[in-house]
Amino acid sequence: MPRRSITDERGFTLVEVLVVVLMLAILAMIALPAFLGQRDKGQDTEAQSMVRTALVALRTYDTDHHTFDVEREDLERIEPAIGEATAHFDVDGTETRFEITERSASDTEFTITRADDGTVTRTCGVPGHGLCDDDNTW
């Protein structure tokens, strides 16, 4: 078997290297938006979970006090996990209605609202983004 010389200049041509770089760039362009979308969905899930947790605590409070007029601190005593909510978390209520709002790290606001007639709606702030449906619900 013949030995290669140290001066052997075989290798990749510039065109071959450019083709490989181009293929990697195309793969990155495909994968990056999908990755960013998944991150937004994860952040939205965290905000939705906080709103649902607050809803359970608020209903517990209503069972004991017969009103939805509550402060965040009251809900934290019922469910300590609410202390991990963002500064944008808000709960507003009266005897018959309430509104719970939390903003995700991807800047989508999720709200659960109960009207005076008992109708509950779930809305979000950025339709078609993350876990927010095109019709502004979740």
Lay out the secondary structure:
Blueprint: H1 14-65, H2 72-78, E1 90-93, E2 98-103, E3 109-114, E4 120-124
Antiparallel strand pairs: 1-2, 2-3, 3-4
The percentage of residues in β strands lies in 15-25%
Low-confidence stretches: none
Shape estimate: elongated
**Rg computed from alpha carbons, rounded to a whole number of angstroms:** 26 Å
Please explain how this structure is put together.
By secondary structure, this protein is an alpha+beta fold. It has 2 helices and 4 strands. A 4-stranded antiparallel beta sheet has the order 1-2-3-4, with helices on one face. Strand 1 (90-93) and strand 2 form a beta hairpin. Helix 1 (14-65) crosses helix 2 (72-78). The longest helix has 52 residues, at 14-65.
Characteristics:
138 residues, alpha+beta, four-stranded antiparallel β-sheet, 2 helices, 43% helix
Short description:
43% of the residues lie in helices and 15% in strands. It contains two helices and four strands.
